[in-house]
Design goal:
Elements lengths: L1 E5 L8 E5 L9 E11 L1 H9 L8 E10 L11 E6 L7 E5 L3 E3 L6 H20 L7 E4 L7 H10 L4 E6 L5 H6 L4 E4 L9 E6 L6 H6 L1 E9 L9 H5 L4 E4 L2 H7 L1 H16 L7 E6 L3 H9 L6 E5 L1
Parallel strand pairs: 8-9, 8-11, 9-10, 11-12, 12-13, 14-15
Antiparallel strand pairs: 1-2, 3-4, 3-6, 3-15, 4-5, 5-7
Helix pairs in contact: 2-3, 2-8, 7-8
Length: 307
């Protein structure tokens, strides 16, 4: 089978295609014939900055072709989506059942990849802030695969005002079409009226303005892999708080909660209330172009690979 990997850090140019045997599922694993693979910023960063090569994991959707020992609830022919921590950039991939969920009949793999994993991150990050109806929410990387869903979910969960923060002002019309009331760009001196909640997917140098955007008592939820530090004094002033969110921890330790998020996402999708956007679909062999799209911050919605 075809698989994309890299041997050294250095960005899209480090990726190459290889031929390897189809893997065998281990205990609790599903062997998936992939239909679609989601490209995420954390994986792009690993290729660019990682100290050593790691498997290119990520979101995927496809058909179960074999199951490992101890698997119940799934059988060959089922279509599933989920997060693969091994080699996801491949024609066949292994998916642990704790990370898998069924894809409803009639739903394409590309829509499944754009909705479920990114949607779970967006919904989980929002819930981590314990929002109350009528509060205001600011979303950084608002045009990204996660961010564009977070904007919609904040509105659906009762936010009175939703602010979208983007790196490129040209994305303003896109995020407004999703329900954002206001749009700010990272370079602005002020992000306007303070908000109750900031959902930050960027980190790094954006941490300071994200924290500054909070009203007294506001909550900053960090789910980025971009690093950065926060001064304790900046939290003390105004009684602000910072919360870290990792979806894999919830999936492993609170499977019922995780399943409930997925159920809600599919319900909102089938009702037409939540609209996942796919910016571009690239052939698997063009993984470098897909990564470059993310690195250039050119995407409006999800970037997807297809074998």
């Amino acid at each position: 089978m075809r698989r994309i990997r890299y041997e050294h850090s250095g960005g899209p140019g480090a990726l190459f295609q290889e031929e390897v045997p189809v893997p065998e599922p281990g205990a609790g694993e599903l062997l998936i014939r992939t239909e679609a693979i989601g490209v995420t910023l954390p994986v792009v960063r690993k290729v660019r900055e990682g100290a050593r090569p790691v498997p290119l994991g990520g979101e995927l959707a496809g058909e179960v072709v074999r199951v490992g020992d101890g698997v119940t609830g799934y059988a060959p022919g089922d279509r599933v989506t989920g997060l693969c921590f091994g080699h996801a950039y491949a024609e066949y991939a292994l998916l642990h059942t704790t990370m898998a969920s069924p894809v409803p009949a009639g739903t394409g793999g590309t829509d499944a990849v754009a909705l479920v994993r990114s949607g779970v991150v967006a919904l989980g990050a929002l819930e981590a802030a314990r929002p109350e109806k009528g509060e205001s929410v600011l979303v950084t990387a608002a045009a990204s695969g996660v961010g564009h869903l977070a904007v919609q979910l904040a509105r659906l969960r009762g936010a009175a005002r939703v602010v979208a923060a983007v790196g490129d002002p040209a994305k303003a019309d896109f995020v407004r079409s999703l329900g954002a009331d206001a749009v700010v760009s990272y370079g602005q001196e002020s992000w306007g009226e303070p908000v109750d909640i900031v959902l930050d997917a960027v980190g790094g140098t954006l941490l300071a303005p994200a924290l500054k955007a909070l009203a007294p008592g506001g909550r900053l939820v960090e789910y980025s892999s971009g690093g950065g530090t926060i001064e304790a004094y900046d939290l003390l002033v105004g009684g602000r708080s910072a919360i870290g969110f990792q979806v894999a921890m919830v999936a492993r330790n609170q499977p019922q909660r995780y399943a409930g998020w997925i159920e809600e996402l599919w319900r909102l999708f089938t009702e037409g209330a939540l609209r996942p956007a796919v910016h571009a679909v690239f052939p698997l062999a063009d993984a470098a172009r897909a990564h470059a799209t993310i690195e250039d911050r050119a995407n409006r919605g999800k970037v997807v690979l297809v074998p």
